[in-house]
Every structure is written in C-alpha cells, then in structure tokens.
Amino acid sequence: MSAPVAALNILRGSCHCGRLGASFSTAIDPAALHPRACDCTFCRKHGAAYISDPTGRLAFDATEAGALREYRQGSETARLLLCGYCGVLMGVVFDHAGRTYGAVNAGCLDGEPALGSAAVVSPQRLSPAEKMERWLQVWVPDVVLPPANG
C-alpha cells in the first residue's frame, strides 16, 4: 500500500544540460536514505551512489530524442542510464518478469537533499543471479522511462 501523498518526499533531479530528468518519490525521510556507492570502475569513474525504495516510485523523462542513452557493462544485466548529450549518469535499471526495476544516482538530484551517509557496495562480487535478487529487494519496481524516440 502506498503512503498518502502528504507523506511522500519527492526528490527531483536532472543531468547537467537538463535534457534528462528524474523524479523519485518515497515515504522514507531523505536523511534515512543511504546512497549505495558501487565500487565497479564505471560507477566509481562517474562518482555514482544510488538511492531507491522498493515501495517508492521512480520516473525518468527526456526533453528530446537522443537524450537517453544506455550502457551495459560487467554481467550486462543492468542498463546504466546516461544523458546522450552531457554524459551524466542518471540511474540504473534492469528488467525482470515484465517489470523494470531501478535506482537513481543521488548525485544528479537537485537542491542537494540531506541524505544519509553513503555506503560502498560491491555487486561485482555477486553472481548475476545474486545481483538480481538483491536488486529485486532494494530497487524501485515499475520505473517509468521515456519513449525510445525521446
């Protein structure tokens, strides 16, 4: 059951050029959200640390075609979402049983929300099946993505 609208914290963000946006809604107090800094080389080089809530909502939008680019690395199970113009890493998603699960990169959120301290995680030590099981537990289900043509 979702939280009443008044209880939702809505965190919004965008890439550097503003062509990609993100909206993350959660009933969790932002101070209790601890960004997970993935230790893989791709995420480290982008300074990524992800937040999510399995009872929250997450949507990405694009203002023009070509803004949303995807990159797969490692086990190629997840899709990293980047701006095709300025290169900002906005989030990560994966598909399972007809649903799209995801997390937003806390670094792209506007207004520097007061989040909890970051924790380093190491998904590269997990098998693809273990990664998916973890993601199913902590990521937002039913992520909304912009249409393929932007």
UniProtKB/TrEMBL annotation:
Q: Which UniProt keywords apply?
A: Metal-binding, Zinc
Q: Which InterPro entries match?
A: CENP-V-like, CENP-V/GFA, Mss4-like_sf
**Annotated protein name in UniProt:** Uncharacterized conserved protein
> Pfam families of this UniProt entry?
GFA (PF04828)
The record's comment on protein family reads: Belongs to the Gfa family.
Identify a single GO molecular function assigned to this protein: carbon-sulfur lyase activity
Q: Which residues form the CENP-V/GFA domain?
A: 11-130
State if Glycoprotein is listed as a keyword: no
